[in-house]
Amino acid sequence: MKKSNVVSLTEKQFNWKKIFMFALLFAITVAPIFAEGTAIDGAVSKVTGFLSSGLVTAICLIALVVEGIGVVVMGKQGADVQQIIGKFAPWVVGTVVLLSANGICNYFLSDISFAN
Fold it and tell me: Whole-model pTM?
């Protein structure tokens, strides 16, 4: 019996999604190389200025304290370690990434030069 290679409509759409995401990620990674001396520099300085502001740092530190209190309270209520990690790990990681976002942005988006 001969098998036919029929591709369903959802598989075709999934392939287009892969191609679109690849092109989007490629554009995002290549854009900072050619952005020097353009209006993007101003936007980058605004974003890094906002991320390094005292307000964002204070909010993130308060969030870390609240997350720590939540971990202690859940532990005292007898929650399993897996439940505590599953509930609070994404929030802690997100808060730490937001705290370090200024350094990440400065690392990738500034001092891009290809001169010898």
Answer: 0.55
